[in-house]
Amino acid sequence: MAAINEVGDLTIEGEIGVLTLNSPPVNALSAPVRTAIADGIKQALDNPAVKAIVLICDGKTFIAGADITEFGKAPKGPSLFDAQAMIENASKPIVAAIHGTALGGGLEVALTCHYRVAVPSAKCGLPEVNLGLLPGAGGTQRLPRIVGPEKALDMMTSGAHVGAKACKEMGLVDELAEEGKLREGAIAFARKIVAEKRPLKKVRDLNDKVEAARGHPEIFATFRKANARKFRGFLAPEYNIQCIEAAVNLPFDEGIKVEQKLFRELVTGTQSAAQRYVFFAERQVWKLPDVPAETPTIPVNKVGVIGAGTMGGGISMNFLNAGIPVTIVETKQDALDRGIATIRKNYENTAKKGRMTQDDVEKRMSLLKGSLALEDLADSDLVIEAVFENMDIKKDVFGKLDRIVKQGAILATNTSALNIDEIATAVKRPEAVIGLHFFSPANVMKLLEVVRADKTSKPVIATSMQLAKKIGKIAALVGVCPGFVGNRILAQRQREAQKLILEGAMPWDVDRVLYDFGFPMGPFAMSDLAGLDIGWSKEKSKGETIRDQLCEMDRRGQKTGAGFYDYDENRNAKPSPVVEKIILDFAASKGVNRRAISDQEILERCLYPMVNEGAKILEEGKAQRASDIDIVWINGYGWPVYRGGPMFYGDTVGLDKVLASMTAFAAARGDDFKPSALLERLVVEGKGFREL
User: Fold this and answer.
1) How many angstroms separate the CA atoms of 614 and 655, rounded?
2) Could you tell me which of 5, 54, 61, 2 has the C-alpha nearest to residue 28?
3) Which uninterrupted H or E stretch holds 516?
4) Which helix (H) or strand (E) holds 85?
5) DSSP 3-state assignment of 381?
6) Interior/surface letters 580-610, b for 16+ CB within 10 angstroms, e for the rest
7) Sign of dihedral through CA atoms 72, 75, 76, 82?
8) CA angle (35, 37, 41) in 5-degree steps
9) 312, 668 contact by CB (below 8 A)
């Protein structure tokens, strides 16, 4: 064995040279790894005893991709292109031996090898699109040549990790080795190549599949149309498609030029910067500075849920999906039966779509028990209440739980805004009380706000975060304040949206601007979807707001066929002349002189106060990091990932610009726009939220 450098060595086994890379944790394509590839191949080529070369990795995976910590830094060592050229232009056959994952740059390296062998558990993919990028080392030109443009479109725009068996069927992998015996299998395959005098198969020279697609632009037009909704606003999927078009229509070297040009545009643009930021933020959000990793956790083997309505049912499904038994409690039998029936119906709908089997449905339902008695929660390790948003009711429930539920259990509330410190006064063990704020529908939405009260213990916090991961959520630890992080910031946008429609805009103007920004829908379309009558009382309503007047007319949203918009039988929305008249009359009754409002003003008035409120939340210590706020908004409120969240967006726009607008709005419109002290300080210091 000859060591090449600290991460690579070359061994000679008969006539086969085995170049092994070992750069934990994932053999990313760092400068030392690229050096080991280039130098190792050169040594093997210079050795007359070597007739073929196997490129293999130690550890849990093949080369998993680029080392993104090197992005934006001065290049060191051979470039990835140098290493790939050394492989592709080698005078002896090179076999990539793949286990774990060959992703991104890892697969691009494997595609420059002449052959590929993989164990059945291996996966291959080009997931750069998820970082707002495209494969920038020839992947966009080689993949379509080996698997065909249609499969390349699917793989590159989804970033999917494709199993080895499927890779073999599509021609990406030449042979499957026995699980656990990759080295032996790859060496045997290399010997077979030598014995059979197989040619040096360069993927770049394979043209059959791309030539078959040439002159068929409908392949791309159909794909774009089918995915228009999913790709809306994102540059990277479109740029990936353009590269595959180049692979079909241009010679290889010309296609590489297109790839390089579009890669440079993406890697230097704000969308990819935002998506890379989110990638790291989603990992950072689990790190709790004052809750050490070694904090003991509480075993949660049985969960109680109080309330079988939409929230309670959805919350229960998360635990059933993870194999944790749930007892769900209601006050009336018909409500309990309805809630359990809804859970079953949700599972059966999933089974009808082929996403689970009927056995899976029965397995989950067998873990669910319904009850009308809180006493049945006595032996639960965690109880979550999802009852009506009323402080007296919640305190009453917690007082009862305190007497019933075993010591050591976690007592959680799903409140979206109420003061959890006050709820905790109802029990003799406030250290056991925590907020677990699920988002609706709770079985679908990824976000969980874990709300730490003043007396919540560290084991309870650590357990809640660990449990969030187990049930497939992204959790952000936040503090107690009105609306916590997500809804507190949302309130800023909602207030301005309501004011804007009085001052001169229409609901569809506000919605269009925010939809074009990248939100799935604007605030008024969202209100219609949720139902305008949430929290509205017919008995108490006196027509004091536009919403009151709409509800009094039975315009309660999509469910009644009319709300802020008029809806047809397919729930397609169109602007409503009725609503326009209500708004104009209401503004006149309040003495408001309406004026033309620009799209830019709508955007700034809706978004800048959100950035400012996020700064106040950081100032008060109610969120640990600016990036945690962004994670909340991306996963709970549909903030477009390619804009990185409200705090990242503030940095992107420039905090000086945000402050200038807030100051001007405050002078014209009052204290709602008062800039936070943190925003002012950061501007003075020339810093952004990312530098906190």
Assistant:
1) 12
2) 61
3) helix 507-517
4) helix 80-88
5) coil
6) eebbeebbeeeeeeeeebeeebbbbbbbbbb
7) positive
8) 120
9) no
pTM higher than 0.85, yes or no? yes
Using the Cα atoms of residue 23, residue 29, residue 33 and residue 38 in order, give the sign of their dihedral: positive
Residue written as token pair 């992947």: 139
The residue type of 142 is: R
Give me the amino acid identity at 469.
Answer: K
pLDDT mean by block of 10 residues, the chain; 692 residues: 89 97 94 95 96 97 84 83 96 98 97 98 97 97 98 98 98 97 98 96 97 96 97 98 98 98 97 96 96 96 96 97 98 96 96 95 97 97 95 97 97 95 98 96 96 98 98 98 96 97 98 98 95 87 92 95 96 96 96 97 98 98 98 97 98 98 96 97 97 92
DSSP letter for 205, please. G
Q: Which residues contact 86 (CB under 8 A, 6 or more apart)?
A: 37, 38, 41, 42, 78
User: What is the H or E stretch that residue 493 is in?
Assistant: helix 486-503
Residues forming the active site: 108, 128
Q: What are phi and psi of 623, to 5 degrees?
A: -130, 150
User: Cβ–Cβ contacts within 10 Å for residue 243, how many?
Assistant: 27
**Of 229, 249, 219, the residue nearest 153 (C-alpha):** 219
- 218 token code pair: 């409908």
